[in-house]
Batch of 3 targets.
Target 1
Amino acid sequence: EAADESNNDDWRKPLFYWKGKLKWSKEKENFTWGGSWHSAFAENGLPHPTDFESTKQSNGFQLKGTSTNTSDAKVHSNIMGALVLADEWILKGHYFLDQGDGPQKYRDKMHRLVFEKKKKYVLVGACGTTEFGNFVSAGYAEIPQSDDNEINFVLARRYIDENDTRNSLIKSGAKSVIEEYTEILSSSDNSNVDPTAAGNEFWIKLLPRTKY
């Protein structure tokens, strides 16, 4: 179910799910990520594929990720080695948002991201800031086959207010964000939380509405 801002006093209540294909280029030593985003409440879980398909024109995005230690990442011909090896990825590009006057192009002021391989998936933590405020993100990518240079990637963005304690994570960077996620998922209560499975636990556990 899409989030309807007209029925909510705070536009930060829903998550903003970004979904698309991530493509690694060994020659350029970077990746591109393109797709579309869709808003929904964490309790409802990941939106249906048709929701993302319906927003391709109005909510599309195209980003490029560059490693902060490119010289290390370039020695890997496969996508997994390159993504996980990097200390941090800096994302730049644009996305579209319609605020009543048609889709307009926007750019994040800062967007930082880290990948961490798990048994069944690749955990992703990210953070950044926009003209609308600060955000933290959690998501996952599929584990690629050895010869793949393209994977499916989902990242949910949680905008936070100025009093949220997660602002300190944003100042530290995406590595601090993913360290917090790893700690949450390592607890006995959350050991079976899997973003690739149906349900909403992953999004609720990692991206609560507020943390004060």
Note: The beta strands are 15-25, 30-40, 60-67, 89-98, 103-106, 110-117, 122-130, 133-141, 150-160.
Target 2
Amino acid sequence: DTCFFEKNSLGVILGTEVAGITHTCKTECRRRKDCGAYWEQEGSCFVQTSAGHATYRPSHVAVRATCVEGMSCLEISNTSVAFLTGQFCPKGLKEDVSHCSSATQGKCGKLLTSVYARSGLMGKDEFFMEKGSCPWDPNLGSELWVLRDGAESDYMDPKTGLVELRGKAVACIKDDIEEKVLANGTHASTVYMANDSFADPRYAVFRQDTLSKLEVEASLVTQSCDPPEAESVDMTFGTVEGPGEYSLDACECFGKAYRDS
């Protein structure tokens, strides 16, 4: 449930160079309770922590945040398939059944997976994204994400949050982008479209021979932060004296008093 957003650095950062680690710099930051960001430079790992003792000016940093499947929104982007782009946010849950096999023991039985929605200015512009098999090519596997048009017959149970989607499937994203984006921040994947999709005026720019060349990139949407309860140049959050109690995320900061100390 810990993810990172790439951000341009806006100035001096108090941090520590970490030497001798055998894991990645991201893993190092994730393991430290007081690490709020990290960056890599010339093969070295640097972490921003409350125990930092030197100042740096990195060009960009990876800022730590809390992201959870079914709660964080995903941004789908790529100009080659612009009709699929937009912000997809959790809408509900889909109930699936995973059949037991020697390779999938422990994952069989009923499973709940997230359903994402992209709102449109008109009902026909609404898209939904659910995990499952590609309707026109089941051989692609069951770990894909299927994008469907919104339909009047779509249903959500207000008590359980379970969603049943009945709109036309227009595209399938090859990978489990939810899992990969939450782990890595971004992920590029191949998009498959149904042959009859090319007859739709919305997709007229595509030719059938481009089917295997389409790609999208999915990324986490930066979490929004509520403004602080008070405004002051000397505002601090937590205490400088107790750095071990700190656990920075994208909505927290040390404040001017600590920066200047």
Note: The mean pLDDT is 75.
Target 3
Amino acid sequence: NLEQCRALAKQAVEQGAALLSLPECFEYMGVPGTGDALKAAQPLSGPLMAKYRDLAKAEGIWLSLGGFHEAAPQPEEKMYNTHVIIDKQGALVASYRKLHLFDVDYDGGFRESATTIKGQEALLVRDTPVGNIGVTTCYDLRFPELYTALRRAGANVLLVPSAFMPSTGEAHWHVLLRARAVETQCYVAAAAQAGRHNEKRASYGHALIVNPWGKVVCDLGAEGNGIGISEIDSELLADVRKRMPVMEHRRSEVISVQVGDAGERLRVVSAL
């Protein structure tokens, strides 16, 4: 997968992108029920992440690595599903461990919690080349309070790298991503796994970029590899928020989104 990611990074640089978002399980797609992904997990300080850091530096591009199999410290016999942000110098800026684990009974059933530990905090990375990014992963998409909290913390771009199942993707993928964009008035970029991976796993595809008005400005379809590019239009962002100031209209005295531990469960990291 590294060489495939390298090719995509080169394409992104050629097209003028400042940041490339890769999907959940970008480095390895396991076979459900076999434990192979857990066996392949490495710490963020390990040799595999070092190769992706070298890739970012070699190509001079920021990377959003959405869904790396991060080995948990011993004696845990599980891993974390970790979304890593790397700058164009190859520095690991921040990492986010997926909060909401995918334990569902569609497409043959899936129990992410069997091998994965829940994360404990949300993450906003400020001052990147594309603005302030809210860092999330896949199933997080179904929990709008997370995205509201990220918008309140200053997000203008929300990243949702994913490997959505075919049936849930067909039913909900586009509408959920557009809803998160509309309600937060942010750009939403969702890199996505696509097609058949093995005998037990397939993904819906349709990597999307949605603007703050809820318009889909990029859809890569159901099959194949590729990249989609969108500029972050700061004037559109400001105009949507000015003409419909939903954050000012929130009735927090009636219904409030609370971040745990007096706000400490939402970590803010500056890329400067």
Note: The mean pLDDT is 95.
